[in-house]
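To: structure desk
From: M.T.
Subject: fold request, one chain
Message: Could you run this one when you get a chance? Sequence is below, nothing fancy, just the single chain.
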Amino acid sequence: MRSASDSPAVVDRPAKDDGCLAATLRVTEIFYSLQGETSRSGLPTTFIRLTGCPLRCGYCDTAYAFSGGNTQTMASVLDKVAQYRTRYVTVTGGEPLAQKNCHALMALLCDRAYSVSLETSGAIDVSMVDARVSRILDIKTPGSGEVAKNLWENIGHLTAHDEIKFVLCDEADYIWAKQQIVERGLADVCPVLFSPVHRDLDATRLADWILRDQLTVRLQTQLHKLLWGEQRGR
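Reply: Done. Structure tokens follow.
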């Protein structure tokens, strides 16, 4: 497995305070599909996948976004998003917050009346994310190999508008996640999602554990993978 240091740094041009449309981002892909996760599952959504990530989770299914991509201006990204007739936009990665201009992009999208969600690893401070954005905070479990990267201070910045996600590799991850929910009062912060690693943890087993323990969590599967498998851009 590659270390984070193996990935080239993502270079972008700083955005002006006024959200200058000439500012740039490194973008892996922009595509239109059904949202496969979170409480927005099933909604037609435009996805903006930014390039670069400081984490190397063992189950990562978007390693192609670690490097490469192409440099695009904010104006170009907005034009591409406008081609699709949906108000739902998800900014994802990689780790989108690894690029400082991600904040300006999300603000510009919100200014244009899009309903914006951010999929973030939770390893980078989320306190400066525009309040109009729904932050989907992915807490890393021991099975991910990146549990030490969790920035627990992020929990204090979340509101009922946001969501916490645990991607679970096995029963040990489930027990650990359940403990975090109790000890940190996560169910009182915002909705909590449990997602089984595709093909590693059977969703039915996870459902049985949730019902047995009467947890206040939402079970989610990756709808896009059920529909289209591992197809990129779906």
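Reply (cont.): The beta strands are 24-34, 44-50, 70-73, 88-92, 115-120, 134-139, 163-168, 192-196, 218-219. Let me know if you need anything else for the meeting.
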